[in-house]
Design brief:
Number of domains of chain B: 1
Shape of chain B: globular
Structural class of chain B: mainly alpha
CATH class of chain B: Mainly Alpha
Oligomer: heterodimer
Number of helices of chain B: 13
Distance between the termini of chain B: 26 Å
Helix content of chain A: 25-40%
Largest sheet of chain A: 5 strands, mixed
CATH topology of chain B: MetI-like fold
Largest interface: A-B, 25 and 24 residues
CATH architecture of the largest domain in chain A: 3-Layer(aba) Sandwich
Number of strands of chain A: 10
Shape of chain A: elongated
Distance between the termini of chain A: 67 Å
Strand content of chain B: under 5%
């Protein structure tokens, strides 16, 4: 009798763990660069409580391909959401924000321009080739003369799996410069400074977002995305230094 | 093993075994032999493997060289604060790798406590192969020291005393009597530490970064592949499992201890 009661209680507790209380729990997988804006936006969503998983866009996409089902997936490019869409794993992608790639240096650094990166002994952090920030960085470097590109690449000391890794290596002084989004630099509250890239080199950085097929809360997921385009989410993105989505 | 309690024990062991080996079995089930070979041919894979082996071997060398006498001291002497020292040495065992990485940065990074000294000495640690070795040493050392200490503690004190009575000095007794007698304990500590070092990921990524041929060990290479090349990541994982298992087994066999059959004494 007592044993039955214990088992019953355990089951009730277990059921409670996964249970739906009144406010639905919206799971959002988002690019690491969206962390500040999304955390702020998620704080007072009208219809749901948001739970975020921030990591490299590529890694999160790989998780979805392996069967992980967040409600929303937001990437630092449009390629990854589009690929998932073509595989039938997510709904049609929406472009919701833009960003600018910049050269990030610790405050007070002697580095002032892209040219300085080619100097001997400068240590650089870049994103790994497969993460959006790393791909954008290579797009920029590819537009440089071969000799300069070679010299800069020779100074790369680490290829990080997401922007958080690059920011960390910079703020800890492990490297002298890195390529980040302007919003990442702003999120460091002055620890890092952004050096703008020449317009001719600036890649089109566009963020895509999708509702994942099989999401537990598709209605709230769509509301979340609508708020990113026009509402609290858009305002949080703007405050964090993001730009409106580039014209398609 | 009669009655319901015996059945319960067997069931518990079966569940534990199944749970612990299922992911490992899955790695091999999903990996075709040709993928395994192909993954090794991929750019960066062999470099990562070489780097993992070299770095873990160097780290183990440092650990054995410093850890063995340290463990001997802890096992054979009683002094004030000994318990605290033992606890501090074991602390990294329970630290998450990310904490280890942050701690190493805070201590030895350019902005760290000793960062200025290190820079003045003209030494580069962060984002270098030396950084990888340091990270591996930090996370793996406690595994060895702990086992080694237990190994030395299990040595019959009368042997050590007899050795000294017969005229062998402290150092000779340590080298000729204590180490051989504690052999199985030392070797099993070595195997555990080596396995931990081979698998190190978080502290390496945070402290040493990820760069092919310089700091990208096998776990980092697996992580890099995970996003774009799941098959490649699986295959490389299979290689790492095989390597770790082979290391464990050969070390155990070499030591002649009955690790698979009984506890390390």
């Amino acid at each position: 009798m007592r044993r039955a009661a214990v088992v019953g209680l355990a089951l009730a507790v277990l059921a409670g763990c996964g249970g739906d209380d009144e406010t639905p729990q919206l799971t959002v997988s988002a690019a690491a660069s969206l962390k500040q804006a999304f955390t702020q936006y998620g704080r007072d969503l009208p219809e749901a409580r948001a739970r975020f998983s921030f990591a490299g866009s590529e890694e999160l996409a790989a998780q979805i391909e392996q069967g992980v089902k967040p409600d929303v997936y937001a990437a630092a490019n449009t390629k990854l959401p589009q690929q998932l869409y073509e595989k039938g794993l997510v709904e049609r992608p929406t472009v919701f924000a833009g960003n600018r790639l910049v050269l990030a240096v610790p405050a007070g650094s002697g580095i002032g321009a892209l040219e300085d990166l080619a100097a001997n002994g400068v240590a650089l952090a870049v994103g790994a080739e497969d993460v959006p920030v790393g791909a954008y960085t290579r797009t920029v470097l590819d537009k440089l003369p071969a000799a300069q590109r070679g010299a800069i690449l020779a100074n790369v000391r680490t290829e990080e799996p997401d922007v958080a890794g690059i920011t960390g290596k910079l703020t800890q002084g492990a490297v002298d410069a890195g390529f980040l989004y302007v919003s990442d630099v702003r999120a460091t509250d002055g620890a890092l400074e952004a050096i703008e890239l020449p317009d001719a080199l600036q890649p089109d950085v566009a963020y895509g977002v999708v509702v994942v097929k099989g999401a537990r809360h598709p209605r709230e997921a769509r509301a979340f995305i609508a708020g990113l385009l026009d509402g609290e989410g858009a305002r949080a993105l703007e405050r964090a230094g993001f730009e409106p989505p580039p014209a398609q | 093993m009669k009655g319901w309690f015996g059945a319960l024990l067997v069931a518990a062991l079966a569940v534990a075994l199944l749970f612990l080996i299922l992911p490992i079995v899955a790695i091999f089930v999903d990996t075709q032999p040709q993928d395994l070979v192909a993954s090794l041919g991929e750019e960066g894979a062999l470099e990562a493997l070489r780097l993992s082996l070299v770095c873990s071997a160097v780290a183990l060398g440092i650990i054995v060289l410093v850890g063995t006498p340290a463990a001997y001291l802890l096992a054979t002497r009683r002094f004030r604060g000994r318990a605290a020292v033992v606890t501090l040495i074991e602390l990294p065992l329970v630290l998450p790798p990310a904490v280890a990485g942050i701690g190493l940065l805070a201590a030895l990074g350019p902005n760290g406590v000793l960062g200025g000294l290190i820079e003045d000495a003209g030494v580069q640690i962060v984002l270098t192969t030396a950084g990888v070795i340091l990270a591996l040493t930090f996370v793996a050392a406690p595994f060895y020291v702990r086992q080694a200490q237990a190994g030395f503690e299990a040595v019959d004190r009368t042997w050590l005393d007899a050795s000294r009575t017969l005229g062998a000095g402290e150092a000779r007794t340590f080298l000729r009597v204590a180490i051989p007698a504690a052999g199985p304990g030392l070797v099993s500590g070595l195997a555990l530490a080596w396995g931990r070092a081979l698998g190190e990921f978080g502290a390496t990524l945070m402290f040493a970064g990820s760069f092919r041929g310089i700091t990208q060990t096998v776990p980092l290479a697996i992580y890099e592949r995970f996003s774009t090349d799941f098959t490649g990541a699986l295959a490389l994982s299979a290689v790492l499992v095989a390597l770790s298992a082979a290391l464990l087994l050969s070390v155990k066999l070499l030591s002649g201890s009955a690790w698979l059959g009984g506890a390390a004494r």
